[in-house]
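Person: Show me a sequence?

Helper:
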Amino acid sequence: MPRPQLEPGDPTGEFPIEPSAYFLHLMLIIDRYRDARVEELLRPLNMTLDGHRAMRIIENRGACTMGELADYAIIDRTTLTRLVDNLVSQGLVARSKPPGDRRKVVLTLTEAGSDAHAQARRAIIKENAVLTADLPEADVRIAVRLQQSLVKRLVADDDIARRLLFGVASKTTRRPKNQS
């Protein structure tokens, strides 16, 4: 008995399923396998992927609050608190309270954190160069613009979308809010 087809097929026959569904499927595979590779690179540095991502965000921003880190890192706040506690206990991240707002906690990298982050970035940049070697720049730029467009469509809050895109606005437009 033939299995029912859950996804519509590609009308041209080039892909196993409809191209937009296949595109999203491949993005997930790329994300998972690349994360596994980066975890392997970070293991000798005694760093986790989530720890590196948190440190990258803090480094890029110069300093940030837990809320800002949560928006960028896309990690639930309970997990993020444990992650930051661990980075603080390792001496990689410092917490401070700015004068005038004792409720706010600001995160910065320590000197050891900056050094560890730089070492991890060098390894990841090298891996990225190997992974993307020989890809035409024009094709990479098209892929980046597609991903920017998807972020804008998926993230309902314009400010968060802009922050996730590091303030870069693509030339694509957002989907109207009343469409699903």
About this structure: The CA atoms of residues 57 and 133 lie 26 Å apart. The radius of gyration is 20 Å.
